[in-house]
Structures are given as C-alpha cells and as structure tokens.
C-alpha cells in the first residue's frame, strides 16, 4: 500500500503539561506562572504511520483544549489520507463548518483544536511522503500550494490568481534557497531565553552573555515593570549587548493604547526595534495608532501570537498597524492558514517573525520560517529561539554556531514528543502531577494571577 493511501483508524488525545513555572519560564506581566502544555493528538492508520498534532496552552484550560480536540478529531476517522489532502483548502473549510462552528467561528479554543487536528494531518502527509514538512511544501507546484489555502474572507486583498503569480515569481529562484536551507542558512535566530520577568538581573546578565557567545545578536525581553524598573533592566541589557545588539520588548497586552504610547516614548533612547503586544490583541486600530505615534521615535510595533485567524492579520496589514507579523504556529488553523498569512504578509511587504516562545514552538516554526524564505517571501527573517525542553522531542530544534536555526531533516512536522515525557508530565496521572507539589499547583484556581495565587 502506498503510504498516501493510509486510512485513519482511530486517535488518542492526551493532556501534557510541563511545570515550567518552577523555573520562571513563561512568566510575563499578565501571568505569574506559565506551564507549557499541549493538547496532544495522535491519529493511527492502517499503514502503521502515526500523525501527531498539538496545540499549545499555558496550564489551566488545557483540559478544555483536549475536549475540543476530541470533538473534532473523529471527523477524519475512516478517511484515507489522500482523500483529505487532495484539496486541503476545502478540508480546512469543512473542518471549520457545521454545528460546532457556533462555539466561536475560527477563534478561541475551537481554532486551537482545529489547528491540532490539521497539524496531525500535515504531519502524517509529510511522513507519508518521507519529507520534513517544509520540503513537502517547497516541492509543491504553485498550483498545489494554492490548493491548500482557503481564500474565503481574504480575497479582497489576495486572490488565488495573485497568489499563483507571486509563487511563480519566487519559484524561479527557489532551488537556490533550498540549497541555503540544506546548509542551515535559511532562518537566523533571535533569543528570548534571557528575557523572562522571573529571572534576577544576575541571571539575565549570565544568559545574555551565553547567548552572545552562541552567536545571537537579537534579544527580546519582557517589560512593563514600571518606567524606572524597565529603564534599569533594559539599560544594563543595552550595556551587555552593546550598540550593535538589537533589542525588542514584549509586554503581553498590558497597556491601554495611550498608555503604551506615553510609556514607550520614555524608553526611546534605549533604541528598541519594536514593542510586542502593547495592548489588546483584538485592537487592530489601537495598534495602528500606537505604531503611527511611535514611528518618529524609531520604535516599531509587533503582534500576532494571539491573532486567531487570517482575517485579523488581513486587517492588521490593511491598517498598517504592525512592523512584524508574529504569527503563532498553533493559534491559526495549521499550515493551511499559515500559508495564507505568509502570502498576505509578503504582498504587504511586512516581515514574518513567528512567535515561538514555548515548548515545541521552535520545532514547528523552523518549518514555517523555512517555507517563508524558500517559497513565499524569498527574504530571510528572524525566528525566536527559546532554549528549553528541546530534549522532549523526537526531532528537536537546534541552532548553529553562526546563530541560524538548523533546518529540519526528519520526515513530518516535528510534533512527536518522546513517550517518556508522558510518564512524568501527563496530567493528572503522570508522576509529577500526582506528587504533592503537582497536586497543590493543580488545585489552585488562581494560579498565575498576581495577588491571588496561593500555590
Ligand atoms: Mg510575546
């Protein structure tokens, strides 16, 4: 049997949570305690191949995500892989339709579940073809690429014909960029591991120096502690990284629009490339106002990790609201919708700088950024590199001594987590979550809320 004729025979969904808050990983101004978590789906097939897909959560709520995945996953049971992938754009449209769409169309937890299910299909497809996902997409003809996308709601800025024309232009030089990808020279990395709010100044200094030794020149830090505290912290960071270091700051939706403008003006002398998520991720015109106000100060605006769908990105681009498209590989409806956003961003000339600040995100995004460079924009753009939990993955991400992401080589979408991780971190029965420490964390309804957390 050809692998593409594999029939999906069943699935499992597991709730996986790493207690990352114990190391202050994932701490930001809105959340004191982030536990990197997956709603983890595996499709079994009659060929023996397994398709793995997951979406990301931050601790509490991961059970809701798992329930949503269990609601959608049966739609593909009994189907052959080739019947699902023959027209992936239509598959995306169908899985976003029906009774369940009422829960919140292409938004929220349902969109996360859609992503997990489609990620498992893309993973299975790439494994069946024996290629890493980025290469599966790089080997598509422009027509095949366009067939994976759903243009509904975005055809006012991007038609299938325009997409085809853009892809044909880039196809002329694609072979050269595939060679660069195979030499691990496609995706430069930037570092966020030094920047979590929970780290002491000494710890930040040490992490920055290590990152610079690894070849990093771009650094992103959490901010929003108050002008004086931020000036002190960012001031010594600027000293450590020097004038040539490129600094970005992230406040995770902390401010109102005018507050963001006033606050950031006072940090202008620190020469920051952009402010990330200055306000509500839904406030497209607010981001546009902040960007216009900060432009004379040389500070850009970035957002995207909580942007739920292609329509919001369309409007952010139309409103000239952002200097970087920070799409999240799990927040959109999988590779299908990501490809649409890559093409729209390229059309508007805004670089894609994916959000990948959590477990497994670098593993997925290294495929996405490679596709952007090789197939869509033809331009190098940076990708976040966080240095935790790579050892948990079968096909783990890494960087080169020159500060590039290693281009994925293993067939699939790099979603597979090592089974040993589940013995410890599956929730609630893994050994960590069964322990007294784990039980206390799980039973605190206010975990992550400043002033309320009791665990
Ligand atoms: Mg962020």
From TrEMBL:
<dbReference type="Pfam" id="PF02746">
    <property type="entry name" value="MR_MLE_N"/>
</dbReference>
<dbReference type="Pfam" id="PF13378">
    <property type="entry name" value="MR_MLE_C"/>
</dbReference>
<dbReference type="GO" id="GO:0000287">
    <property type="term" value="F:magnesium ion binding"/>
</dbReference>
<dbReference type="InterPro" id="IPR013341">
    <property type="entry name" value="Mandelate_racemase_N_dom"/>
</dbReference>
<dbReference type="InterPro" id="IPR018110">
    <property type="entry name" value="Mandel_Rmase/mucon_lact_enz_CS"/>
</dbReference>
<dbReference type="GO" id="GO:0016836">
    <property type="term" value="F:hydro-lyase activity"/>
</dbReference>
<keyword id="KW-0479">Metal-binding</keyword>
<keyword id="KW-0460">Magnesium</keyword>
<feature type="domain" description="Mandelate racemase/muconate lactonizing enzyme C-terminal">
    <location>
        <begin position="201"/>
        <end position="297"/>
    </location>
</feature>
<dbReference type="InterPro" id="IPR029065">
    <property type="entry name" value="Enolase_C-like"/>
</dbReference>
<dbReference type="GO" id="GO:0009063">
    <property type="term" value="P:amino acid catabolic process"/>
</dbReference>
<dbReference type="GO" id="GO:0016052">
    <property type="term" value="P:carbohydrate catabolic process"/>
</dbReference>
<protein>
    <recommendedName>
        <fullName>Mandelate racemase/muconate lactonizing enzyme C-terminal domain-containing protein</fullName>
    </recommendedName>
</protein>
<dbReference type="InterPro" id="IPR013342">
    <property type="entry name" value="Mandelate_racemase_C"/>
</dbReference>
<dbReference type="InterPro" id="IPR046945">
    <property type="entry name" value="RHMD-like"/>
</dbReference>
<dbReference type="InterPro" id="IPR036849">
    <property type="entry name" value="Enolase-like_C_sf"/>
</dbReference>
<dbReference type="InterPro" id="IPR029017">
    <property type="entry name" value="Enolase-like_N"/>
</dbReference>
């Amino acid at each position: 049997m050809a692998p593409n004729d594999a029939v999906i025979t069943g699935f499992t969904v597991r709730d996986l949570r790493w207690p990352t808050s114990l190391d202050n990983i994932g701490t930001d101004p809105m959340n004191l305690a982030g536990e990197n978590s997956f709603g983890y789906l595996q499709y079994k097939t009659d060929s023996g191949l397994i398709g793995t897909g997951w979406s990301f959560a931050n601790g509490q709520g991961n059970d809701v995500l798992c329930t949503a995945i269990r609601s959608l996953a049966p739609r593909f049971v009994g189907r052959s892989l080739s019947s699902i992938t023959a027209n992936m754009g239509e598959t995306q449209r169908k899985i976003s339709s029906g009774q369940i769409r009422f829960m919140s169309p292409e938004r929220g937890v349902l969109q996360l579940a859609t992503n997990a299910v489609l990620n498992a299909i893309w993973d299975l497809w790439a494994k069946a073809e024996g290629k890493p996902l980025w290469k599966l997409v790089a080997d598509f003809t422009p027509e095949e690429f366009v067939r994976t996308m759903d243009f509904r709601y975005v055809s006012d800025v991007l038609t299938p014909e325009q997409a085809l024309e853009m892809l044909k232009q880039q196809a002329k030089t694609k072979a050269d960029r595939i060679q660069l990808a195979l030499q691990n020279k496609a995706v430069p990395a930037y570092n966020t591991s030094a920047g979590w709010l929970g780290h002491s100044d000494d710890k930040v200094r040490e992490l920055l120096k290590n990152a610079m030794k690894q070849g990093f020149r771009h650094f992103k830090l959490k901010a929003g502690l108050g002008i004086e505290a931020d000036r002190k912290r960012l001031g010594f960071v600027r000293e450590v990284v020097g004038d040539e270091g490129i600094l970005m700051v992230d406040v995770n939706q902390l401010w109102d629009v005018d507050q963001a403008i006033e606050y950031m003006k006072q940090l202008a002398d620190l020469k920051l490339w952009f402010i990330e998520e200055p306000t509500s991720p839904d406030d497209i015109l607010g981001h546009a106002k902040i960007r216009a106000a900060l432009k004379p100060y040389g500070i850009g605006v970035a957002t995207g990790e909580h942007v739920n769908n292609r329509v919001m990105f369309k409007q952010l681009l139309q409103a000239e609201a952002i200097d970087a498209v920070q799409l999240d590989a799990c927040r959109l409806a999988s590779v299908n919708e990501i490809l649409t956003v890559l093409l729209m961003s390229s059309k508007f000339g805004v670089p894609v700088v994916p959000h990948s600040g959590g477990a497994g995100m670098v593993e997925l995004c290294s495929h996405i950024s490679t596709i952007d460079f090789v197939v869509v924009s033809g331009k190098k753009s940076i990708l976040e590199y966080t240095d935790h939990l790579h050892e948990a993955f079968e096909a783990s991400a890494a960087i080169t001594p020159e500060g590039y992401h290693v281009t994925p080589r293993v067939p699939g979408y790099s979603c597979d987590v090592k089974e040993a991780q589940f013995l410890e971190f599956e929730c609630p029965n893994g050994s960590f979550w069964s322990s007294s420490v784990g039980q206390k964390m799980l039973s605190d309804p206010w975990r992550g809320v400043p002033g309320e957390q009791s665990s």
